[in-house]
Amino acid sequence: SVPQINRILAHSHHLKQQSTPWLLPHGTISRNKASKLRLPPQSLFNKTIALIFSKRSTRTRLAAETSAELLGGRALFLGKEDIQLGVNESYRDTARVIGGMTQGIFARVGDHSEIEELAKYSPVPVLNALSSLWHPSQVLADLMTLQENKASFRPLIEKESQPTGAPELDRPLTIAYVGDSANVLHDMLVTYPRLGHHLRVASPVQYRAPKEVWDRVVELGCDKGIWWGEDPREAVHGADVVVTDTWISMGQEAEKAERLQAFHGYQVTEQLCREGGAHHDWKFLHCLPRKPDEVDDEVFYGPRSLVYEEADNRKWTIMALFDMLFGKWNLLEEQPEK
Ligand code: CP
Ligand code: NVA
């Protein structure tokens, strides 16, 4: 829900502000300052979070492992070669057994039904670390990065910062997504319109969001905030932010040739955004890992690119999720909408 998203983001900013100085190399903080520094909450003390990952990961895994440690607990990485899952054992039995020995499950799966099955039978909370349909923790890091860069999106009416410390984005942004309708985009579709931002998407017709994703978009009333077409130039019109993802997601390697052909002309470049009429100060986001097919080096390594801040923020948002869901379990209680 929107209040939950806002609470997670506020907590992510708080954890980052609180913990970043603490993580600096020894000796770089003055003695005065050091006395005021505080560890993040030790809510995972004596707790273990199972990372059930059936696909590769750099950022999500690193964020999870380092976050669990800072929260005083442990993340146990269980790759597909390590456990019986998928070969000798069902998702149902795996969920019950792993959930019986740990306090939370963060799972990266193939088909989305696999995480549904884990969640159905696990006695402890299950968080999605990426599935065929969704990548919910990614959009949190993207939002956090946009909030931190709010000065780039002027004119803004400065508001007093919230007591929680989350910098508010108090003007609706126009966010353009150019590329494959995959898990990363799907969470943007169900998130940005609810926060009042406008989403403009360009993807080839044959690579549009599947029905179950679109049904959810409509159910949440997000369809009204989304423009969808085939022309990347039209999509970036008026964009404050341009986003893309790989054209070949994990598991789609066999479709490489046809995908490269279908996405011809979708590469994010300065020229494309200039011709399409993006805002002159547009910024760029990409979940990573990146290939030059979908964005050229000039944009990716240029001053518009927020990609490494975005990658860093995977840590603080995942730490907030772990603290709130696995450490304190208070996200499970739905709070009334304000
Ligand atoms: N953005 C992201 O999920 O990266 P990894 O696949 O490396 O975890
Ligand atoms: N769409 C990509 C995202 C990687 C973080 C994939 O699923 O491979």
Automatic annotation (TrEMBL):
Residue runs in coiled coils: none
This protein's name: ornithine carbamoyltransferase
UniProt record similarity statement: Belongs to the aspartate/ornithine carbamoyltransferase superfamily. OTCase family.
Listed InterPro entries: Asp/Orn_carbamoyltranf_P-bd, Asp/Orn_carbamoylTrfase, Asp/Orn_carbamoylTrfase_sf, Asp_carbamoyltransf_Asp/Orn-bd, Orn/put_carbamltrans
Domain Aspartate/ornithine carbamoyltransferase Asp/Orn-binding: from-to ranges: 173-324
Enzyme class: transferase
GO terms (BP aspect): citrulline biosynthetic process; L-arginine biosynthetic process via ornithine
GO MF annotation, one: ornithine carbamoyltransferase activity
Record-level GO cellular component terms: mitochondrion
UniProt keyword annotation of Cell division present: no
EC numbers: 2.1.3.3
Taxon lineage: Eukaryota, Fungi, Dikarya, Basidiomycota, Agaricomycotina
Stored Pfam families: OTCace, OTCace_N
Species annotation: Laccaria amethystina LaAM-08-1
Residue ranges annotated for the Aspartate/ornithine carbamoyltransferase carbamoyl-P binding domain, each copy included: 1-148
Gene3D superfamilies: Aspartate/ornithine carbamoyltransferase
Keywords: Transferase
Lineage top rank: taxon: Eukaryota
